[in-house]
């Protein structure tokens, strides 16, 4: 348990160690920021680097990862999800470190039968421990057009947002004994894969391979972030507005939007699942 505020400690480290130019990734060429990691040709970057597409067929899915590791950041990506009958498929978009005590921040989009809503599944892992799932329906069709999915990760909290609307907040409660991702650099990953053993209605609805190939598309990546290199994090800037995300909190309007989403579109919250936690809810649930 930390004796000092973890936020203050990290902010001190930030001010002393971080130098150089603020890390801002351009949305113009995804080739510069990402590499295809698997899929045997099923993943492609087209339009001079402006568009990345993952595809899934019965033989294989596909995936990519960022070329850069980050330690804190405000990450934006526009996604257009698999249209039509996407039951059984999962489009995962997340940040993750390596090792047995890894940290991870997850967006996962669970496929559906035509006409049914996608489920947006979120999770946070710290020091290898997850089981912090919250799930949402979206208030729009995520397959009809691109929408922006964002992760704000700073020493104070992690905020998941959709088109600028916050849907989930995970506070840094390390001073209360709850581990928080703050020491391990993470890469950005995404994959499109078959999970029909659990993804749609708990595995009751299987993937219809006659609909394959399934395709999800990505564009307009932007990272205002601290880049990890040679054991140090670099994210300084001469412009205070450029790194305002590092200490950003939700204002009253943001809190209202968060409450609106959670009241109207949240369909699962681990902090209210008494059957799953008969001995008591995780510690952070009483402090959220």
Query: What string gives the helices and strands in order?
Result: HEHEEEEEEEEEEEEEEEHE
Count the E strands: 17
Kindly give the count of domains: 1
| N-C termini distance | 18 Å
The oligomerization state is: single chain
CATH third-tier fold name: Jelly Rolls
Query: How many DSSP H or I helices?
Result: 3
Share of helical residues: 10-25%
Give a quick account of the main beta sheet: strands, pairing sense, barrel closure: 9 strands, antiparallel
The assigned CATH architecture is Sandwich
Written description of the protein model:
10% of the residues lie in helices and 39% in strands. With 288 residues, the chain is mainly β. It has a single domain (30-272), classed as Jelly Rolls (Sandwich). Strands 1, 3, 4, 6, 11, 12, 13, 15 and 16 form a 9-stranded antiparallel sheet that branches. The radius of gyration is 19 Å and the shape is globular.
Write the topology of this structure.
Blueprint: H1 6-17, E1 23-25, H2 30-33, E2 34-38, E3 44-46, E4 51-56, E5 62-66, E6 69-80, E7 89-96, E8 104-110, E9 119-125, E10 134-137, E11 147-153, E12 157-162, E13 165-171, E14 187-194, E15 214-229, E16 232-234, H3 252-264, E17 266-269
Antiparallel strand pairs: 1-15, 2-5, 3-4, 4-15, 5-14, 6-11, 6-15, 7-8, 7-14, 8-9, 9-10, 10-17, 11-12, 12-13, 15-16
Subcellular location: Secreted, Cell wall; Secreted, Extracellular space, Apoplast
GO cellular component, one term: apoplast
Organism: Parasponia andersonii (Sponia andersonii)
């Amino acid at each position: 348990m930390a004796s000092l505020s973890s936020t203050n400690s990290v902010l001190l480290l930030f001010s002393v160690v971080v130098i150089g130019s603020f890390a801002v990734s351009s949305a113009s060429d995804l080739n510069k920021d990402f590499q295809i990691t698997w899929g045997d040709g099923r993943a492609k970057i087209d339009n001079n680097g402006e568009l990345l597409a993952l595809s899934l067929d019965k033989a294989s899915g596909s995936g990519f990862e960022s070329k850069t590791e980050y330690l804190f950041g405000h990450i934006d990506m526009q996604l257009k999800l698999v249209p039509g009958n996407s039951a059984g498929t999962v489009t995962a978009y997340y940040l993750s470190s390596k090792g047995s005590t890894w940290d991870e921040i997850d967006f996962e989009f669970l496929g559906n039968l035509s006409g049914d809503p996608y489920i947006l599944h979120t999770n946070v892992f710290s020091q290898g421990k997850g089981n912090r799932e919250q799930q949402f329906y979206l208030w729009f069709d995520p397959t009809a057009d691109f929408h922006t999915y964002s992760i704000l990760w700073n020493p104070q909290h992690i905020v998941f947002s959709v088109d600028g609307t916050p849907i989930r907040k995970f506070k840094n409660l390390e001073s209360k004994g709850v581990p928080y991702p703050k020491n391990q650099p993470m890469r950005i990953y995404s994959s499109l894969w078959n999970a029909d053993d659990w993804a749609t209605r708990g595995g009751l609805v299987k993937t219809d391979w006659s609909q394959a190939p399934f395709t999800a598309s990505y564009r307009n990546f932007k990272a205002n972030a601290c880049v990890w290199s040679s054991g140090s994090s670099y994210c300084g800037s001469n412009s205070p507005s450029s790194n305002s995300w590092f200490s950003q909190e939700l204002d009253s309007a943001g809190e209202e939007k968060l409450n609106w989403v959670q009241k109207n579109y949240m369909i699962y919250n681990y902090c209210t699942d008494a059957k799953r936690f008969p001995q008591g809810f995780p510690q952070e649930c009483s402090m959220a």
